[in-house]
Write a structure and sequence with these properties.
11 helices, mainly alpha, elongated, binds fe (ii) ion
Length: 280
């Protein structure tokens, strides 16, 4: 009888303990689901912004995706952690978002070489871009900081603030190299793109003046050179794929998106986020 009483009372005690455990597990699960939902929402918001860039200027849309490819290769070669790689990717994808501003529309869509007044106007795009992205600063604080600094130069002669050396955010230093490489090797509205070798040589020439010398050394190291070349061929192949080919109203080939924010939890996707190095 005594034994029965003891067993009954311990069973009664076990019920609330089990219930508390179940409640805690449920709360944990809910928090996990909320955090995944939040991440997916963030990715969707950024992809929407990317679509807005495409809609306004498809050539900028394909340019920023190629820049993201090259910037991620460089970030990976640096041994950057996943957070840094994500920041670099976001800054690469949105570095030129300031160009979709109405004030710059005609200049951006013009087929002539820019005159000095137009070049001055274009120089406002990093600050305009940072302003567009400001509401995202509480979620991605490094994004507007990187975007506003992507035309700063290592020697302090860049714009808009004339930042020097490591005062320039790392993401902006990485993107500056990738951006310049793509600007040289890919055709613009008013001039044809140059060869891979010419692009690489230009990056070497900017070592210590335009670009962070350590990053240039990394970019020009043989394994990275090969990867950049492969990314360049990959981007070109995607852009030339006949069924994906699209044209702007001026008849220019705008290529096809090759980098996407599609969140990798949902599918074995091919987005740039999937190429972020795994934790070692
Ligand atoms: Fe730019």
């Amino acid at each position: 009888m005594k034994r029965l009483k003891r067993e009954t009372s311990s069973a009664l005690l076990a019920v609330p303990a089990g219930a508390a455990l179940a409640t805690a597990a449920l709360a944990l699960l809910r928090r996990h689901k909320t955090s995944i939902k939040f991440e997916r929402f963030g990715a969707a918001a950024l992809e929407t912004l990317l679509n807005a860039i495409d809609a306004n200027d498809p050539l900028t849309g394909t340019h920023v995706r190629r820049v993201a490819r090259y910037a991620l290769v460089l970030a990976d070669a640096m041994g950057a952690d996943a957070h840094t790689c994500h920041t670099v990717e976001r800054v690469a994808l949105f570095h030129d978002i300031g160009k979709i501003h109405e004030a710059l529309f005609d200049v951006i869509h013009d087929h002539r070489k820019l005159d000095s007044r137009e070049r001055r106007e274009i120089r406002t795009h990093p600050a305009r871009g940072a302003k567009v992205l400001e509401p995202l600063a509480s979620f991605y604080p490094d994004l507007p900081k990187g975007v506003i600094a992507h035309h700063e130069r290592w020697d302090g002669s860049g714009y808009p603030r004339g930042l020097k050396k490591k005062a320039i955010p790392l993401s902006a230093r990485v993107v500056a190299i990738a951006d310049t490489f793509d600007a040289i090797t890919h055709s613009r509205r008013y001039r044809a793109g140059k060869s891979f070798e010419v692009g690489m040589a230009a990056i070497g020439e900017g070592r210590g003046t335009q670009f962070d010398p350590e990053l240039v050394d990394l970019f020009l190291a043989p394994p990275v050179v090969d990867r950049i070349h492969a990314e360049m061929r990959g981007a070109t192949a995607v852009e030339r794929a006949p069924k994906l080919r699209r044209r702007t109203r001026h008849g220019e080939d705008m290529g096809a998106p090759d980098v996407s924010f599609r969140w990798r939890d949902t599918s074995p996707a091919q987005g740039a986020l999937d190429r972020v190095p795994r934790k070692k």
